[in-house]
């Protein structure tokens, strides 16, 4: 599980940024996560003891939106103003007093990924932590410890860990699985800058072209490809007579 968790985090960070720029966030992240799930699941079938199974929660901030992908029992909270909200739901099953993950990366050949998309706001704070923390701190204590000095997020994580460990030890159980990470949105881009019509001077999108049509000094000779997302044409520059692909 430790190897699966480490590999999944490193691979997601590397592979997500390698996906084509024209894909939306959900498509890119889902493709990466499904590939990771297939790899971890195949590794689990080859080991005699243990398994390559891990929870994973990933937050992608793009433009003025947040995209959250989740499977397993890790926890993600959002602190917005005085509101402290859990954004993920636990994929666990209670059996005989023990809690077991009912969904996680590498557990099955196919994976069902929770996905949430929401508008981001300047000042939003996101807290990532582990299932073991449940039952230690109250929501009001999370807010108090974070707000005590939110300018230093590392120090805030240390305060959370120290308080959670003390609470766990006072109740007689271990705290070696505690982990905290905080992410804050300090600044957001101008929403208008994300509108392609604004960026490109309100140019209209041309209709589908046919052989013989002309556009910006180019004549369409043939349609090479037609998909739901794109068109590819063989064209000729009317001035230079040079043939190109558009």
Layout of helices and strands, plus pairs?
Layout (H helix, E strand, L loop, with lengths): L1 H15 L8 H20 L11 E7 L2 E7 L3 E6 L2 E4 L5 E4 L2 E4 L12 E6 L5 E5 L9 H9 L5 H18 L9 E5 L11 H4 L14 E2 L2 E9 L4 E7 L5 E3 L1
Descriptive report:
The chain is an alpha+beta fold and 246 residues long. Among the domains are: 2-124 and 185-193, Phosphatase 2c, domain 1 (4-Layer Sandwich), CATH 3.60.40.10; 206-245, no CATH class. The protein is built from 5 helices and 13 strands. The protein has helices at residues 2-16, 25-44, 139-147, 153-170, 196-199; strands spanning 56-62, 65-71, 75-80, 83-86, 92-95, 98-101, 114-119, 125-129, 180-184, 214-215, 218-226, 231-237, 243-245. The protein has a 4-stranded antiparallel sheet, with helices on one face. Strands 10-11-12-13 form a 4-stranded antiparallel sheet, with no helix packed on it. A 3-stranded antiparallel sheet has the order 1-2-7. The longest helix is centred in the N-terminal third of the chain and has 20 residues, at 25-44. The chain is elongated, with a radius of gyration of 24 Å. It starts with a helix and ends with a strand. The model has no long low-confidence stretch (mean pLDDT 88). InterPro entries: PPM-type-like_dom_sf. This is Serine/threonine protein kinase. GO terms for molecular function: protein serine/threonine kinase activity. It comes from Rossellomorea vietnamensis. Keywords: Kinase, Serine/threonine-protein kinase, Transferase.
């Amino acid at each position: 599980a430790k190897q699966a968790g480490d590999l999944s985090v490193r691979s997601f960070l590397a592979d997500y940024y390698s996906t084509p720029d024209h894909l939306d966030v959900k498509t890119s992240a889902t493709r990466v996560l499904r590939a990771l799930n297939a790899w971890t699941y195949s590794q689990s079938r080859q080991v005699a003891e243990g398994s390559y199974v891990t929870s994973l929660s990933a937050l992608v901030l793009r433009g003025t939106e947040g995209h959250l992908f989740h499977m397993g029992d890790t926890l993600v909270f959002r602190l917005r103003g005085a509101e402290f909200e859990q954004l993920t739901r636990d994929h666990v099953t209670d059996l005989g007093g023990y809690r077991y993950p009912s969904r996680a990366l590498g557990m099955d050949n196919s994976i069902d990924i929770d996905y949430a998309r929401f508008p981001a706001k300047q000042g939003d704070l996101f807290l990532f932590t582990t299932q073991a923390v449940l039952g230690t701190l109250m929501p009001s204590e999370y807010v108090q410890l974070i707000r005590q000095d939110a300018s230093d997020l590392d120090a805030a994580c240390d305060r959370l860990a120290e308080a959670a460990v003390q609470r766990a030890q006072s109740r007689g159980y271990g705290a070696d699985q505690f982990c905290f990470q905080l992410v804050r949105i300090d600044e957001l881009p101008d929403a208008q800058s994300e509108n392609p019509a604004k960026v490109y001077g309100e140019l209209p999108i041309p209709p589908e072209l046919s052989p013989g049509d002309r556009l910006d000094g180019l004549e369409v000779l043939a349609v090479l490809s037609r998909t739901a997302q794109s068109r590819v044409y063989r064209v000729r520059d009317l001035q230079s007579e040079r043939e190109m692909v558009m």
